[in-house]
Amino acid sequence: MELYLILIIVGVLFVTFTAILARYKRCPSDKVLVIYGKTGRDASAKCIHGGAAFIWPVFQSYQFMDLTPISIECNLTNALSKQNIRVDVPCRFTVGISTEPEVMTNAAERLLGLKSPDIQNIATDILFGQLRLVIATMDIEEINADRDKFLAAVSQNVEAELRKIGLKLINVNVTDIRDESGYLEALGKEAAAKAINDAKKSVAEQNRYGETGKAIADKDTRVNVAAADADAVKGENSAKIEIANSDALRREKQAEAERVAVAAEKVQAAKALEEAYKSERDAELARAEREKATQQANIVVAAQIEKEKAIIEAEADAEQLRRRAKGEADAIFAKMDAQARGTLEILAKQAEGFGQLVTAAGGDAQQAITMLITDKLPELVKTQVEAVKGINIDKVTVWDGGKGENGKTATANFVSGLMGSVPPLEDLLKMAGMSLPNYLKGTPEAAPEAETKTEE
């Protein structure tokens, strides 16, 4: 079962991979691949020349356009020229689908799916129209004599129109030009006759020039020989004079050149000294400026740096002191605030406890105090005992003469006297503004009536 599932998965993957490869299309160099459908661009189709592309199934499709050149024969007859003379202009045009991006898009929009004969028919109509238009703007002499101008005009007009449908003009060839009136033939005969007459005239003139030239040459020969002899003697004399003048002029020029050279040397030497002195002065000034800048950099800049460093350190110390003082103040404030809150809380709790104690005593404050003292009595007694507990008596010597009173010995009197030095409990309470109850002092309580009378 597992092997069967593996075979199914492998088969599905193989079919998928084969389908993907089948949708990847490569464009030959002699064709244009046109992808249409959902191309994801503003153009209605995507044209590729000499590359490859993946064709999405369902969303896209494709076709090829052939780039093979198409030869079109245009035997134009009875075309009206600028001189209103009808001419026959047999031409042959070679066109093909252009590979420029914009023009390929035009071809995809207007020629996709058409066969070569259909494209040829469309191009033929355009070629005939543009050829008639060009002939109507030119004279027959221009068309016949200046073929380059005629072909350039035809190529320019035809190329612009062919681009609109995606074609490109490859070549144009005009075989012959004829007219019904025989104007071109007459022009040819006239040109031939004129050429023949010009040739005959040229031959006669050349013969005449030959005979006359021979006679003139003989005369010139004799004259020239005599003149040459005279000129030879004259030339020798003139040459001697020229040699003498040349020698004198040479010596004069040589002396002048030596004088100018000496003067120039002195002037150059003076200029050299002047430039040397100027260079030395500039060097000294530059050195002084450099020394000044060095001193300024060593002293002023260092002082400025120390000044800025001291300012920064002072500001840092001041900031540190401010932060430390603020921290200490915040700590003191927090401590005092905590102590105040603690004291307030203790007092509040004590007041709350006292209130509850008075409430427990039935609203009698004196009774509440009595209860409080009773609660603290063990601590008070402990305090009295602690007063003598801390006395370190290493040794006590008592001299007893046997004269004790009330049956007390000297030792007993010493101990009682020592305990009498401790403040009585009642005195301690009186110092605090309180008094012991009568039952703690051993005094019987007075009757309520007696107390009332005493108060009165």
Structure summary:
The protein is an alpha+beta fold and 456 residues long. Helix content is 68%, strand content 12%. The chain has helices spanning 2-23, 101-110, 116-136, 140-145, 147-163, 183-360, 365-389, 410-420, 425-431, 438-441, 448-455; strands at residues 24-26, 31-37, 45-48, 52-54, 60-66, 70-80, 86-97, 167-174, 178-179.
Could you characterize what this model shows?
- With 456 residues, the protein is an alpha+beta fold.
- It has helices at 2-23, 101-110, 116-136, 140-145, 147-163, 183-360, 365-389, 410-420, 425-431, 438-441, 448-455; strands at 24-26, 31-37, 45-48, 52-54, 60-66, 70-80, 86-97, 167-174, 178-179.
- Strands 6, 7, 8 and 9 form a four-stranded antiparallel β-sheet that branches. Strands 3-2-5 form a three-stranded antiparallel β-sheet, covered by helices on one side.
- β2 and β3 (45-48) form a beta hairpin.
- Residues 446-456 have low confidence and may be disordered.
